[in-house]
Design brief:
Chain lengths: 350, 350
């Protein structure tokens, strides 16, 4: 079997991996955002070419072409021919109906590789980064928030993931918005004082100035200018403040609402017909909710009574390799799963 | 004294009035949105020229130039000279530091008028549309929501009015967003069923279809497409749905939160040093909160104990004329205030 190419195209980084059918990672490459929604199509495709190109060159140096062709000769003719992959699997947010498959195929070809392109959900890849199981659940909260129920490595049900305006309960955006609104109400006198105000003013570079213009303090005028100059989802950058203001009652209410929102997203998904682990990922979970025993407990209330483990997500590129193998008809057991992880770690350490 | 020109430049309509120093309205003109933020600068200025031009022509036909010049001759030379106004006052939302004064002066000149341009708050004009008093309070909720405390016809304090992302508690946008989120949670299974769902689907033209794509019902996919194609503030168009779903618990909670949010905005503003009426305006108040005795009571809880009246806002153009006269040194008593209203009504009826 030809090797597979797996790409985890995130909003910040793109990771590409070339792996053989045993799960051994032969090449890895990284680049900037490969998500068309966050980076724009041209920049995203350039990142895919960059990351895949690096992974393919490293894999070729390791003899990726040899197994399939049965020969060891890597002459000039062979090196200039594209690497033929069994499957080119790209995990990305906002995948789906309007996925730019032809553009991705072009970006992969420009990187010196060929193969059928498949797009998969980034949360599904996140699930498979934590477990070789085909059944189970995943809950993610970064800038957005969503959960999925998985059967046979496919999404059976999705809850939330409806974006910053319609949902994303318990997401980084929701928390950041709540921080900005609480500080606005504090400065405006319409809400309680909060310890979030000084850190937000520091984070936005706004100085305290109680001079009134049009009956409103200058501090608030300046904060309005800064906030509306951001894209709405960029408010998620203020989410970490809420986990640092431990004793503040306003911050505590936002934390509790975050855990309860994520609990509702998870609970609506649970069904007796699906038994398997719960994989948790995203910065709000790893850096905010999970380290706090009270919040973790609230969030996982609906999970109680299930015997299956709760597993932190690992590198999404691992999950993309798992899905690329599974979609190519290669069963991924614990041994294959561990080889993917250890060989990828070895490549990165190299 | 020369006549004054008063313009109420709203997000939907622009009204311009030419009035003499006694408060008698001599000409009126209307056009589309004159607010640069909602219509764009060029379209807004064209609307100002249109409305002012109509008002000036009507006023000239009524002899607006005669009092100031002492003559009755309206020969061709006179008619082609600009109408000199004591003051050209424009009331608009988002007035303030970056107001396009030169552009407005140009738009007024193109309409055949001249005079010093002043920009004033639309909520201040709303206050003066309801009362000739110089002191008091105003609370407005349309797409946005804000309140002001007024002394001597000037804004002393503003609460809220911080926009859809940072505040606007109890506004049409806040209600519309809450409706969309409640329906999303209903369709997603993460929140309770609500009687708001069918009306919102009807309003957005989305058909019920429970087929799952990526683990999510098609109805929700389609609603996501419709909602994210709107500008965020356009969610305010769904606000009326919440006042029609009388017996729905989800809608009731949104209504109560609306009244409580507006109560907080008003209460933070009240001071013993300012005695005067409270003027209430904006579609959320006139069509939603005020007709409901329970909501009205909740919203005005902080106002209780004050002897001053609660007055519904009238035509913002009346308030703009009041401000134009006051800023020109003309005291506006009850008789002048009533003449403004009656002469404007007569012009419109003509």
């Amino acid at each position: 079997m030809q090797p597979v190419i797996a790409v985890d195209a995130g909003g910040t980084h793109t990771r590409a991996v070339v792996a053989d059918s045993a799960g051994r990672c032969l090449g890895v490459g990284t680049a900037g955002s490969g998500n068309p929604t966050s980076a724009g199509l041209a920049a995203a495709m350039a990142a895919v070419t960059d990351a895949v190109g690096t992974a393919v060159r490293q894999a070729r140096a390791a003899g990726a072409d040899e197994g399939a062709t049965g020969g060891g000769a890597r002459d000039a003719t062979r090196a200039s021919a594209p690497l033929e992959a069994e499957c080119v699997l790209i995990a990305m947010a906002g995948h789906g109906v309007n996925a730019p498959i032809p553009a991705i195929a072009g970006a992969v070809e420009a990187a010196g590789a060929l193969g059928p392109v498949r797009i998969e959900s980034d949360i599904l890849a996140m699930f498979s980064s934590g477990t070789p199981a085909g059944d189970g659940y995943a809950l993610a909260s970064g800038t957005g928030a969503a959960a999925i129920r998985i059967r046979d490595h496919r999404i059976r049900r999705t809850t939330d993931g409806t974006g910053w305006l319609m949902g994303d309960h318990g997401s980084g955006f929701s928390i950041g918005r709540a921080v900005v609104r609480a500080v606005t109400a504090d400065l405006d006198g319409t809400g309680p004082a909060t310890a979030l105000t000084d850190p937000l003013l520091a984070a936005t570079g706004v100085a305290r100035d109680d001079t009134l213009y049009d009956g409103r303090v200058r501090t608030l005028h300046d904060l309005i200018d800064v906030v509306y100059a951001l894209k709405p989802v960029q408010l998620s950058r203020f989410a970490p403040l809420v986990f640092r203001a431990a004793d503040d009652e306003v911050a505590r209410r936002i934390r509790v609402r975050t855990a309860d929102g994520l609990a509702a997203t998870l609970t609506a998904l649970l069904e007796d017909d699906t038994v398997g682990p719960l994989v948790l990922g995203g910065s709000v979970l790893t850096a905010g909710v999970l380290p706090d025993p009270e919040l973790r407990e609230r969030m996982l209330a609906g999970w109680h009574g299930r015997a299956e483990p709760v597993i932190p997500a690992a590198d999404g590129a691992i999950g993309a390799v798992v899905l690329a193998l599974v979609r190519s008809g290669v069963p991924v057991d614990t041994a294959v799963f561990e080889l993917i992880g250890s060989s990828l770690a070895a490549l990165r350490g190299a």
